[in-house]
């Protein structure tokens, strides 16, 4: 049996065997047998660790293969973390279940002209002169309308707090698989859930991403490991809520509404705030895998930060744009519910996360939505039957959220459920 597997490995994976990394000449002593770093291949759904022995004196080569225990259970129902897969010694290619096909139009640009993402100086919104405030509100409105995305600088959060939050998320991902298992959750609605990809029970292709998803408001939840997670995330998320509340005041005004309009109409006092930590380990074939596919976020605003490694791309005027984040800034994107509330004036932005082959990327997205019982529909103040009829139906936020969490992550498909289709 062992020999047959070896033969099949040999025959079916010849290209991979040739392409694998051999020791450099200096490392090979002429008469010694040499063992090349083992690597993993996939054959008919099984994961095999392959070691090649070279014998230079005999000009021969032999391969041994053994099942990789941590990956042997790899199946849609019993999915292991991609972090463990990425850390497996000698992984030179990704299992076919991660192969994500892209087309030429998927290519992202880093042309500075096209990548001039709006920058919002938060300090001018909260403590600028009336003139500075109205200018920044105008800029906010423009950023929401033209990009659905902006970077926030001078937001007032201490660098040390941002670092601590990032560190504690990293420590969470560094827990053992057994420790993380405790937080995997059973239902998409559980307040604490960690896992891999997005929703492995419905996905054909998995994403090169592990995640921790925690509901932090109106009730605060936290994993109890690492011990400091609770204290740090409580403080961090509260600060972010304050920033979001101010941004939403500015956005309300930019729509010609009262400053407190969105906060009140969406019952943000009891609004849902969810912390999503994403871990994208180095990937041996980054061009063939995807961290997170194109999607829009539910909710009103998502506030994203990252560990200094870029990977976020947004769609702007039909093109993918690489986001080069200003250090310590927040990356803010508009969500589906801001699109609904503004009756399509501020569209939610399509975005995705790509992976790389040398550094682990961690991003922290904090999603802010209305209270669960809020029925979100276009603000009546922005409608007029002749020129601006309602373009979306009302739907309870709870239902919208449940539908999105139970489905594939697929572009802006969530909005299609509430979009009014013009039949004329
Ligand atoms: O990692 C990123 O940059 C994007 C993450 C994201 O889009 C999300 O968590 O919804
Ligand atoms: Fe997102």
TrEMBL record:
Residues 271-370 form the Fe2OG dioxygenase domain. SUPFAM superfamilies: Clavaminate synthase-like. Pfam families: 2OG-FeII_Oxy (PF03171), DIOX_N (PF14226). One of its GO terms (molecular function) is oxidoreductase activity. The keyword Cell cycle does not apply. InterPro entries: DIOX_N, IPNS-like_FE2OG_OXY, IPNS-like_sf, Oxoglu/Fe-dep_dioxygenase_dom, Plant_2OG-oxidoreductases. Gene3D superfamilies: B-lactam Antibiotic, Isopenicillin N Synthase, Chain. Keywords: Iron, Metal-binding, Oxidoreductase, Vitamin C. Belongs to the iron/ascorbate-dependent oxidoreductase family. PANTHER family: OXOGLUTARATE/IRON-DEPENDENT DIOXYGENASE. This is 2OG-FeII_Oxy domain-containing protein/DIOX_N domain-containing protein. It comes from Cephalotus follicularis.
């Amino acid at each position: 049996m062992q020999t047959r597997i070896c033969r099949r490995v040999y025959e079916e994976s010849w290209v991979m065997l040739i392409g694998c990394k051999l020791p450099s000449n200096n490392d090979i002593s002429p008469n010694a047998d040499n063992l090349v770093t083992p690597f993993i291949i996939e054959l008919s759904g099984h994961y095999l660790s392959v070691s090649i022995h070279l014998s230079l004196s005999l000009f021969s080569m032999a391969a041994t293969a053994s099942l990789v225990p941590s990956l042997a259970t790899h199946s849609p129902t019993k999915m292991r973390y991609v972090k463990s897969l990425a850390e497996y010694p000698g992984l030179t290619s990704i299992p076919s279940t991660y192969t994500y096909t892209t087309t030429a139009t998927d290519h992202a640009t880093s042309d500075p002209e096209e990548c001039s993402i709006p920058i919002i100086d938060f300090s001018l919104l909260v403590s600028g002169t009336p003139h500075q405030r109205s200018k920044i509100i105008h800029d906010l409105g423009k950023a929401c309308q033209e990009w659905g995305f902006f970077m926030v600088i001078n937001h007032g959060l201490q660098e040390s707090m941002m670092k601590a939050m990032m560190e504690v998320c990293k420590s969470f991902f560094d827990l053992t698989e057994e420790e993380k298992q405790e937080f995997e959750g059973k239902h998409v609605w559980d307040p604490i859930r960690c896992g891999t990809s997005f929703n492995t029970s419905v996905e054909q292709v998995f994403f090169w991403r592990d995640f921790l998803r925690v509901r932090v408001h109106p009730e605060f939840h936290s994993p109890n490991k690492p011990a400091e997670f609770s204290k740090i995330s409580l403080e961090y998320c509260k600060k972010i809520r304050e920033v979001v509340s101010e941004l939403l005041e500015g956005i309300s005004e930019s729509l010609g509404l009262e400053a407190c309009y969105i906060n009140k109409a969406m019952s943000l006092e009891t609004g849902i705030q969810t912390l999503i930590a994403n871990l994208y380990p180095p990937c041996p074939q980054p061009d063939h895998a995807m961290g997170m596919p194109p999607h829009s976020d539910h909710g009103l605003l998502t506030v994203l930060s990252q560990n200094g490694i870029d990977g976020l791309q947004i769609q702007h005027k039909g093109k993918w744009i690489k986001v080069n984040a200003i250090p310590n800034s927040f990356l803010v994107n508009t969500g589906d519910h801001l699109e609904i509330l503004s009756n399509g004036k501020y569209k939610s932005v399509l975005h995705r996360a790509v992976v790389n082959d040398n550094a682990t990327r961690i991003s922290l997205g904090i999603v802010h939505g209305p209270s669960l019982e809020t029925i979100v529909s276009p603000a009546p103040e922005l409608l007029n039957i002749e020129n601006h009829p309602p373009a979306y139906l009302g739907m309870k936020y709870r239902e919208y959220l449940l539908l999105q969490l139970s489905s594939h992550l697929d572009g802006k498909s969530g909005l299609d459920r509430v979009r009014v289709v013009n039949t004329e």
